[in-house]
Amino acid sequence: MTKPFFITLFICLFSSQMKAQETGLKLYVSGAENYPTVLAYDILDQNGTRIKAGFSSLKDARTPVVIPVPLPKRFGVVIYEDVNRNKTLDMGLFGQPTELYAFSNDAWVFLGRPEHKETLVYSKEGWTPLRMTLKSVMDF
To answer: Is the CB of residue 100 less than 8 Å from the CB of residue 136?
Structure first.
């Protein structure tokens, strides 16, 4: 009698633990210069404080970059394509990015960075899907 009880208890605890880990961001990114490529990301809370940053392989525009991370209710994301894989957003002579980049919520400012509040989106329960399109500094 005790053996089935403990097995059931273990399964319940294990499944609830697995459910707790099933949260994060699924980034669908289009507009890359080349596929596959390396995508740099920075996830920020509503105050602009970094939640998580890193680099991930981007296979194509249909396959998401999966980032396991607990998300607050509102957050923003900044991404760029690290074409030369130097782990830096390369800048031109006048400080403009020379690699493609994007902000969540399709926030965009010509030759600048949008206000953080313009990039904020709402998280969903479980995995939050987010579609972003990489652009050049000259896109407007």
So the answer is: yes
